[in-house]
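name: query_chain
kind: protein
chains: 1
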Amino acid sequence: MYCCHALDNLIQNAGNRGISVLVGQINDSLFFSLQMRSIAFSDREKVSQLPTTTALEHIILTESIRIRYCPSCGKSLADIVSAHSEELEKLVLEHDPLQDDWGI
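structure:
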């Protein structure tokens, strides 16, 4: 379904520490975001329970940016949306809790 193995790996890494690609939706439009995560989504509660220090206040836990092309092979992601919108809409539900304000 995806243009290359690298994009498949990035999408499979959603919610884990490191780099991933998320699928989102606004109204009827699907979009992709490249996301960096310092800690796994499942570990966010552990970090929120740590004592607040100046260092912790300045750590960026997640950062996202919308993308229109595959970060690995350069294929237009709009082509993937056109060909596989139903499958991608299922990913939207899985990825929605992982989204941050920057990727939307």
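note: Helices lie at 5-12, 44-48, 54-57, 77-95.
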